[in-house]
Amino acid sequence: MARVLGEKPFELSGILKHWVFCHENGMSDEDIRLRRYIKALVCGREDEWEKEDIRCIPSDSAVITLSGGGSMPLSFKGKDGMTKSDLLLLQMLTHIESGRPLYVPIMSNLDEIPYIRPYLSLEGLLYRIVSTTTEGGNGCVDSERVFDNVMHRFSYGGLSSGNVYADYDVRKMVTGHYHVLSRLTDALLNEGRDDRALEVTRLWLRELPSGVVPYDESSLSMAECLYRTGNADEGDAIVENLLTRSVEWIRWIATIRGERHRGSRMTEYRWLLAMDNAMKVLQRHGRTELLTRFYNDYNAALTRYE
C-alpha cells in the first residue's frame, strides 16, 4: 500500500499527490489494480473498483502535519464531492506554514467549505485561515485587529448623509459590514470590554443608519450592548424597529397564495427567527412593555408557520 499511496495516505499532501493528482501512466498493472481497489474500498465503492477514476472523497477527514509537531485535522463530512475550487484551496492549505497568510472573503458561502470553518479568524472584511481551531468550531474574532480596522481604517462611503441611494450591490456590501460589526460587538461584550463595544455601536448608528439599509437581525448585537451599558431606550428603539419590520414581512407573506407562498417559506422563516431572537433579548433584559406589545403578533406568526 505504501508503494502505491505513500507512507501517509491520509495526510492532506498525500491525498492530493496519490489520490487526486496521481496519473497511472508508467505504473505497473499490479500497482494500478492495487491503487484502484484500495481507493474503491476506502470510498465504499468496492463494486466499481475497476473504473479508471472514482469521483469521491477518499476519506471523511484529512490531516495537515505542522512543523511544531501539531496537526490540523480537516473534516469533509457532508461533502458529496470536491470541486476544482476545493482542490485549489486544499493545495494552498498544504502551504499554510509558508509565512504567507491565506484569506477568505466574509461574503463567501462557508457551507461550501465547512472543513475550514473552525480555522477562520475574522480580521475585518476577510477571514484569515489559521492553523489552530476554536472552541465550538465556528471560528474566532481577532477583536483587536477588527476594532482597529472598523474604527480607523474602514470607509463608509457617506451613507450617514441619508442622501445616498443603496442599490442591491451596495446593500449587499453594507450587510457584510453589519456582519463584521455584529461579530465584533459580541466578541467585545464576551471579553467584558463593554466600553469598546459601545464605541463600535455608536459608530454603527452614526455611519450606517437604518434609513439607508434597514437593520437586520445582526442589529440585536447593538441592542444587547445598549442594554448592558445603561442605554435601554436606544436599545428599545432598535429592537422595535426590527420587530416592526418582521411583522410587516410576515403579514405580507401570509397574503401570498399557492406555489408562490411555498417559495416564500424560507424568507418567512428568516423573519420569524429574527423575531424570536429579538423577543429573547427583550425577555433577557426585562423589557416587558415591548415584549407584551409584540407577543400576539409573534405567537400568531409562529402558529401560522407551523
Helix count, DSSP H or I runs of 4 or more residues? 12
By DSSP, the count of extended strands is 6
Rg estimate, integer Å? 25 Å
Tell me the strand order in the biggest sheet.
Answer: 3-5-4-6
Beta fraction: 5-15%
Helix share of residues? 40-55%
Unreliable runs = none
Order of helices and strands: HHHEEHEEEEHHHHHHHH
Largest sheet: 4 strands, mixed
Q: Structural class per helix/strand content?
A: alpha+beta
Q: Give the overall shape.
A: globular
Distance between the termini: 54 Å
Roughly what is the average pLDDT, rounded to an integer? Answer: 82
Task: Walk me through what this model shows.
By secondary structure, the chain is an alpha+beta fold. Among the domains are: 2-48; 61-129, no CATH class; 231-306. The chain contains 12 helices and 6 strands. The strands form 2 sheets. Strands 3-5-4-6 form a 4-stranded mixed sheet, covered by helices on one side. The chain has a two-stranded antiparallel sheet with strand order 1-2. Helix 5 (143-153) crosses helix 6 (168-190), helix 8 (220-228) packs antiparallel against helix 9 and helix 11 (265-284) runs antiparallel to helix 12 (288-305). The longest helix is centred in the middle third of the chain and has 23 residues, at 168-190. The termini are far apart. The model has no long low-confidence stretch (mean pLDDT 82).
